[in-house]
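Deviation from plan, reported transparently: iron/sulfur cluster complex.
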Amino acid sequence: MTIYSHSSLSSFSNYQLKYRFKYIDRVKIPEFTSVEAFVGQRVHKVLQKLYDDLAFGKLNSLDELLLVYRAMWEQEWTPSVKIVNSSYSSSDYFRSGAECIRKFYEKNRPFQQSQTLGTEQSLVFAVDEGGKHQLRGVIDRIARRDDGTYEIHDYKTSKRLPPQSAADNDRQLALYQIGIAGRWNDVQRVELHWHYVRFGVTLRSSRTAEQLTQLRARTVSLIEQIESAKQFEPHKSQLCHWCEYKCVCPLWKHVLRVALLPAAESMADDGVRLADEYAEAKREENAIKERIENLRARIIAFAQQESATVLQGSAARVSVNTREKISFPAQDTSQRKGLEDFLRQEGKWDQVAALSNAKLLRVLAEEAWPLTLLEKLGAFALREPSTTLRVTAAHDANEDSTEYVPSVGAQGDDRIEARGAGGGVDPEDEGDG
Ligand code: SF4
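Because the crystal trials were delayed, the predicted structure below was used instead.
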């Protein structure tokens, strides 16, 4: 049985091909850690140490924690840590992590708001009544207040502070609330806390029983969608720059290979030559189309001026034929509706109405009908490979823009899985370990 996580569910919803690479094909890729994830993981470890030591009655000073952070950074930094945004150096990232620790420490000292029950707590739990659909996750810290309220804490090192509405709609910690419900008998009230440590801000939210029931249903439905998925399309976005599967992704593999070649060698690459030749041919085609349009207008003007319908050239003749063109009102206009009403009233509709291929394709793509109907419709569909080519600039305008804006729920709960597989870290794990 597949055990899902918030990260794997998000991956399917947002980056289907990456989901396939990571969770189905389990593609082996060179070790990759974004610097944002590296910072986030170190900050998490330091805050974990803070609370683990508190359980033994030891309160580390801020300076002690910053020394631990520096030692971890120096020991654990490897060449596989990737800095995507070259405007910043590793020292800048180091300082940003230290600042996160300082802000958290100063805001929460003396750390007695609640009693910590555990840090980095792994959970595996069923999201449905029958226990068919299982989820896993890792809670940064679970705590209980004197009034019996349980707290689920999550540390975020994101560069953006999301609005409260994002916390109120976040899926990850709400799923963890479902996960801890069976752990202790007295779990009645639960609060969800997101510590945006870069800002020294904590967002808090809670869920009603009804919201949790709806979340269970939505999660089961998403899992069923994953399990019935046949196609996993690539979706190009800014997050591709943090994707560890970029080197095997069909959108990027040739782009990356060419980028690594010296200029002279890249010109000998078959793909580069074909792309250049095709782009040049398309440019010529467009220029010819433009020239033909221009000539057409001049020929019509000349023919009208001369009252002639045939122009004699030295090697060809061009005929100019002008006829009345008949058309009917376009879709979605009141005239069109009038026409359709008229045809129906006169019993002529079936003689002239035709199936719309485009509408049928839209029904299939949007799954707009009940499943049984879609299956019956799908049985009529004729499928064959269709390939299109599109020419774009050699570098996207946005390709060098590397600012990543994570969402409140975009966190890494695959920590066990990622470590076990020796894999990289999700872009959505950015800054959150
Ligand atoms: S590089 Fe982009 S499109 Fe390709 S798998 Fe990764 S996220 Fe998806």
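Residues 270-306 form the longest helix (37 residues). We consider this an acceptable substitute for the interim report.
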